[in-house]
Write a structure and sequence with these properties.
23% strand, 2 domains, Creatine Amidinohydrolase, alpha+beta, 20 strands, Creatine Amidinohydrolase, Chain A, domain 1, six-stranded mixed beta sheet, four-stranded mixed beta sheet
């Protein structure tokens, strides 16, 4: 029933685009509309049927050559066919064009249909968030001063997998000291020792759904400038969370966080958007940024993650995964947001 509803929504969108069918080739969207989790699959969705194409490891419609060639042969009766223009390679598209159809761009149609999560999806995200938080708590009990950033990242990912995660949602970020001022720092050989900020950004996939969280720690006594920076980011995150509810624009949520950081003199130190949607992928629509005018809807799963980064000093980011409700939001991430002292 769940997949029938999703396919029905896509069919309604295809009618608006005056398309007779759609070819879905990206793994997240194939899974969303069919439940198929194999590594090589595509869907042909028309008004009459849904056909899954895959390779000989599976047993639905088995391709006897390149997958796209088999799909193209099935398109002979269609005049207009929509495709995932932002998610398909030139080679695949060239093969599909063996079909003499008029090709229409889906653009972000599928991604917009995925923005509001079903109850089943919400429960999957909750479980992923809880696993992610538990993995961090457990990993930190094994922290020892002198570990490298890579050591701690590996410990975190090991704890994720032991608890049942399919994989990390992205390469775990562990950045110590001045390197915490790099918003997307890759963990390296730097030793976590002495005094300084420690930024940990991590996510897990469980049941196909992602979680995302950033927490801050500090080695040694926390100096006043560090506490000031942390408090400003914490205040900005609370302001953004307070703004989240169904009906408000994502730009207004971003503005709430940005206004606080500007008031503390950190406006130019906030160099990314305030958050993003997540689900079958770690980054989904909507984007919680300056220019995005999407209106939040109940059931959206998003992150709220303002940050401020000072070159030569360090950076702070605080991130929760939340569910949008009619009256506000439900914060799913249970881990304390306090600046931990290690």
């Amino acid at each position: 029933m769940l997949y029938k509803k999703r396919v029905a929504a896509l069919r309604a969108a295809l009618v608006e685009k005056e398309s007779e069918a759609a070819v879905i080739t990206s793994a997240p969207n194939v899974r969303y509309f069919s439940g198929f989790t194999g590594s090589n699959g595509a869907l042909l969705i028309s008004a009459q049927q849904v056909t899954l194409f895959t390779d000989p490891r599976y047993t639905v419609v088995i391709a006897k050559g390149p997958l796209e060639t088999t799909i193209a042969a099935k398109l002979a009766s269609f005049r207009k066919v929509a495709f995932e223009n932002a998610r398909i390679s030139f080679r695949s598209m060239a093969a599909l064009q063996q079909a003499r159809a008029e090709w229409l761009s889906l653009d972000d149609t599928c991604e917009r249909l995925r923005m509001v999560k079903s109850e089943e999806e919400q429960q999957a995200i909750r479980a992923s968030v809880l696993l992610n938080s538990a993995a961090l708590d457990e990993a930190l009990t094994h922290f020892q001063e002198g570990m490298t950033e890579t050591d701690l990242a590996a410990e975190i990912e090991y704890r994720m997998r032991r608890r049942g995660a399919e994989k990390p949602a992205f390469e775990t970020i562990v950045a110590f000291g001045e390197r915490s001022a790099l918003p997307h720092a890759q963990p390296g050989a730097a030793k976590i020792t002495g005094r300084g900020l420690l930024l940990i950004d991590m996510g897990s996939f469980l049941g196909g759904y992602a979680s995302d969280m950033t927490r801050m720690a500090h080695l040694g006594r926390i100096p006043a400038p560090t506490r000031q920076l942390f408090n400003a980011v914490h205040e900005a995150q609370l302001a953004a969370l307070d703004r989240v509810k169904a009906g408000v624009t994502t730009a207004s949520v971003d503005a709430a966080a940005r206004k606080v950081l500007q008031s503390h003199g950190y406006g130019k130190a906030f160099v990314h958007s305030t958050g993003h949607g997540l689900g079958l992928e770690i980054h989904e629509m909507p984007r919680i940024g300056k220019k995005d005018k999407t209106r939040l809807q109940a059931g959206m799963a998003i992150t709220i993650e303002p940050g401020a980064y000072l070159e030569g000093f360090g950076g702070v980011r605080i991130e929760d995964t939340v569910l949008v409700t009619q009256s506000g939001c439900e914060i799913l991430t249970p881990t304390s947001k306090k600046l931990m002292v290690l």
